[in-house]
């Protein structure tokens, strides 16, 4: 259909070429003679002077028909925008940079702009100067005074816009666009259709403006026509919004964050419409499109350059300069053509001059940003991060050794471990295992009750304001004097405590169930500080990385600080990048500060983290054997290995596309549509730069080895999400856990909660790659780049990290790419992690940690908590 429309348009254009009038060579001023002047203007249609009632009714009906068509096309465009935005992960960048060019072509055909015939300059008497002066004069006439005077700047803007769109290839996210859905081709088609509708709306708006002879009357007519068209759009959208609000799942249609943005865009569109209606008589629709295209492209380029002041994402300085130069040249030529062709009214000449100076300043500003682009890195970031990790860990060790860890020994009754009745057998093992851990030091504890979270997901998340208020109240209290400090527990602490009811007979609860729902907006964001990005921003673009979310915790693609990397409050894009936020399998939570002991938690939850019974009782154990040996690092297969099930969240409505486990499998095995950036050596000695490849190139071209698979069957899914994942990810069979030790690189990722594999991975001679958001009791003890290789949860740095350790030896487009394997660094990290696990992550360390935690818990639950403590003898 689109192809047929384009062909018909070209035939019509060719049919009208012979109708372009010839122009007298006399150098006089010419004006645009729009074809609508051959008939009556729309303003005259609405006038009853000299027109009979029948003709007036027909023309009025025709005018209202045009308004209705424009409103309908605008509604269709908004519906397309909504659909494309909702499925943006499959959509190409778009073709909006071509709009000024297409509208300029339409304007050339529709209005048949006049031109001056070129006359040879008579001031070049010198034969040597005659040819260049004549050529320059001829070129000036073609660019600034011919019928192409608006098309040439628009073409330069289009070329600049195309270059700018290529910068997006370096920042593609790993959010999945499934091949089996067929949406990629559909979105490409809809992008083209949206582009065509944009052009139709703009040209339709120009036609509807009436283009009357008198500019003042045309301003009013334009505003009136466009106003009625927008009113039709608003009324249609109001009905649509009411319907969607009534039928959408609670909290999924719109939130206050998007509503504020929507109102802002509505105000912006209103201002732009009113401004354009006043400028249209002077500049025409083609001129307005060129000006608007220049402004939008310039700020898009500056935004991209501002985010690209580091080597990642890659923005070649030569390409950035070309885009900036073509953009400013196009804007400048347009303004010059206005005065050279005498189209510019006299009272706008000063504004034209100021605009030219402004473009010159904008070019200079942009040039500064272009020259500031950092394309090369003369040291690999991982080398720096390994060095810094060793120093950071030494400081931590020194601090830990010098800190006072003396513990109070209080006279307490021997403590038994009665367990609440009615616990499900599938979860009872966890409480029993926690009891086994406590039994080793229970004689030193007072009587206490402990509430253990049996779910994988955390349970307590209080709003930031509530936490801040309590912290301020605590800071306002005075510390007790040394003489008032007591080291004796209160006698008969449990005298007033009620009995523990069986779990299956508890009639009341303060927890609310929000399983299978998106939780970021209603619960996670309010737990962050008011000025944080999680509270103030939302990222709707799932197709590209949120560079501003990555910067605080990364050096290019590589995480620098794991506590900051797993901090949610500066990363609003995580709302659609983790199963906990997309659709948790179990989410029974409270927003009150309730003391709940959980095995893991994320940065904004308030659960009390204790050592996991999963690791304490060795649910998954590092146990190499003759059949499954743990060979030396360099003797293992040079392969990244991960296998697991889809347990991170319950997928429905396509939410599996953002979950890390599925994204990992798709990135390695089926990344057909998105590009990847990999840090590789350049032709210059000891220098690196990010290079862009097709999604499948890391394994098929660069030769990186990765064995990643989802186990069959697909679990925790509903309806078509199950079949879509099976068709897209190709699940495979299970393997013996001890088979992991064959591989040199072992990947670890969150499940519904923490991953129980990480400690066995540390104990092995393999190098663990770790990603995720859940925090455990030992997080402050292990150091990234010293004990393991961290990977951002977006997984955009996975290939660069693997290329560093595994090495690359390939020929790409006739160019040799070679990265030597960093076996020394990889073996060192693997051994440091192994030694540290044997030193600080033993079962004894879990018991000591839990003992200290429960001592503090005992103090908090004691009636004498304000004075209970320990002091050194004088």
Automatic annotation (TrEMBL):
Stretches for region Disordered: 474-504
Positions of transmembrane segments: 148-167, 187-206, 226-246, 258-275, 282-301, 321-341, 353-372
InterPro entries reported in the protein's UniProt record: CAP10 (IPR006598), O-Glucosyltr/Glycosyltrsf_90 (IPR051091)
Residue intervals of the Glycosyl transferase CAP10 domain: 555-864
GO MF: transferase activity
SMART domains: CAP10 (SM00672)
Source species, domain of life: Eukaryota
One Pfam short name: Glyco_transf_90
Keywords: Membrane, Transferase, Transmembrane, Transmembrane helix
Family designation: Belongs to the glycosyltransferase 90 family.
Official protein name in the record: Capsular associated protein, putative (AFU_orthologue AFUA_1G05300)
């Amino acid at each position: 259909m689109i192809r047929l429309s384009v062909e018909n348009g070209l035939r019509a254009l060719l049919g009208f070429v012979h109708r372009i009038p010839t122009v007298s060579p006399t150098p006089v001023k010419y004006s645009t003679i729009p074809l609508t002047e051959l008939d009556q203007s729309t303003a005259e249609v609405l006038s009853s002077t000299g027109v009979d009632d029948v003709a007036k009714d027909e023309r009025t009906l025709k005018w209202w028909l045009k308004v209705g068509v424009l409103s309908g096309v605008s509604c269709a465009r908004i519906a397309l925008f909504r659909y494309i935005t909702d499925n943006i992960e499959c959509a190409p960048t778009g073709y909006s940079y071509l709009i000024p060019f297409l509208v300029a072509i339409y304007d050339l055909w529709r209005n048949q702009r006049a031109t001056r015939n070129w006359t040879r300059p008579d001031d070049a008497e010198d034969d040597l100067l005659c040819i260049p002066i004549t050529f320059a004069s001829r070129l000036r006439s073609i660019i600034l005074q011919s019928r192409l005077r608006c098309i040439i700047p628009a073409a330069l803007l289009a070329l600049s816009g195309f270059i700018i769109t290529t910068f997006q290839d370096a920042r593609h996210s790993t959010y999945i666009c499934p091949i089996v859905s067929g949406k990629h081709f559909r979105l490409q088609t809809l992008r083209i259709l949206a582009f065509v509708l944009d052009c139709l709306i703009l040209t339709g708006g120009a036609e509807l403006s009436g283009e009357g002879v008198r500019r003042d009357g045309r301003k009013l007519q334009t505003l009136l026509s466009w106003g009625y068209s927008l009113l039709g759009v608003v009324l249609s959208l109001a009905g649509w919004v009411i319907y969607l609000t009534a039928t959408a799942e609670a909290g999924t249609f719109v939130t206050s964050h998007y509503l504020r943005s929507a109102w802002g865009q509505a105000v912006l569109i209103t201002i732009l419409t009113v401004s354009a209606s006043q400028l249209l008589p002077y500049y025409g629709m083609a001129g307005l499109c060129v000006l608007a295209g220049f402004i939008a492209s310039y700020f898009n380029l500056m935004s991209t350059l501002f985010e690209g002041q580091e080597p990642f994402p890659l923005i070649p300085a030569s390409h950035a300069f070309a885009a900036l130069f073509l953009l400013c040249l196009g804007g400048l030529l347009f303004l010059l053509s206005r005065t050279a062709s005498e189209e510019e009214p006299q009272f706008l000449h000063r504004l034209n001059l100021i605009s030219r100076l402004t473009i010159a300043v904008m070019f200079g500003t942009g040039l500064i940003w272009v020259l500031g682009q950092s394309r090369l890195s003369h040291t690999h970031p991982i080398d720096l991060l390994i060095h810094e990790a060793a120093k950071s860990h030494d400081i931590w060790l020194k601090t830990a050794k010098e800190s006072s860890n003396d513990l109070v020994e209080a006279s307490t009754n021997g403590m038994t471990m009665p367990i609440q009745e009615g616990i499900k057998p599938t979860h009872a093992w966890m409480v029993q295992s926690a009891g086994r851990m406590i039994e080793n030091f229970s004689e030193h504890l007072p009587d206490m009750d402990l509430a253990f979270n049996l779910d994988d997901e955390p349970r307590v998340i209080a709003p930031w304001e509530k936490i801040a208020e309590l912290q301020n109240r605590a800071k306002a209290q005075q510390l007790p004097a040394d003489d008032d400090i007591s080291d004796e527990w209160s006698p008969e602490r449990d005298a007033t405590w009620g009995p523990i009811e069986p779990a299956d007979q508890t009639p009341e609860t303060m927890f609310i169930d929000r399983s299978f729902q998106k939780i970021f907006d209603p619960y996670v964001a309010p737990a962050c500080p008011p000025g944080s990005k999680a509270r103030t921003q939302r990222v709707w673009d799932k197709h590209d990385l949120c560079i501003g979310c990555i910067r605080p915790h990364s050096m290019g693609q590589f995480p620098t600080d794991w506590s900051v990397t797993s901090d949610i409050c500066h990363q609003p894009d995580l709302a659609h990048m983790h199963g906990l936020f997309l659709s948790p399998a179990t989410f029974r939570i409270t927003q009150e500060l309730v003391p709940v002991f959980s095995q893991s938690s994320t940065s904004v939850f308030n659960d009390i983290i204790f050592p996991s019974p999963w690791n304490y009782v060795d649910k998954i154990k590092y146990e190499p054997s003759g059949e499954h040996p743990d060979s030396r690092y360099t003797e293992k297969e040079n392969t990244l290995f991960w296998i697991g099930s889809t347990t991170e969240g319950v997928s429905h409505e396509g939410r599996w596309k953002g979950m890390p486990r599925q994204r990992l499998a798709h990135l390695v095995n089926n990344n057909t549509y998105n590009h990847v950036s990999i840090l590789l050596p350049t032709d210059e000695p000891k220098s690196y730069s990010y290079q862009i490849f097709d999604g499948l190139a890391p394994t098929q071209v660069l030769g990186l080895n990765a064995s990643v698979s989802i186990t069959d069957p697909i679990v925790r899914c509903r309806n078509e999400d199950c079949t879509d994942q099976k068709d897209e990810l190709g699940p495979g069979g299970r393997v013996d856990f001890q088979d992991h030790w064959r591989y040199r690189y072992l990947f670890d990722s969150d499940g519904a909660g923490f991953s129980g594999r990480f400690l066995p991975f540390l104990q092995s001679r393999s190098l663990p790659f770790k990603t995720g958001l859940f925090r455990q009791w030992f997080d402050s003890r292990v150091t990234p780049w010293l004990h393991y290789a961290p990977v951002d949860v977006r997984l955009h740095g996975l290939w660069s990290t693997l290329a560093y350790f595994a090495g690359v030896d390939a020929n790409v487009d006739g160019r040799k790419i070679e990265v030597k394997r960093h076996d020394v660094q990889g073996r060192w990290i693997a051994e440091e992690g192994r030694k540290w696990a044997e030193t600080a992550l033993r079962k004894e360390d879990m018991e000591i940690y839990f003992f200290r935690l429960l001592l503090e818990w005992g103090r908090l639950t004691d009636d004498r908590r304000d004075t209970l403590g320990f002091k050194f003898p004088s």
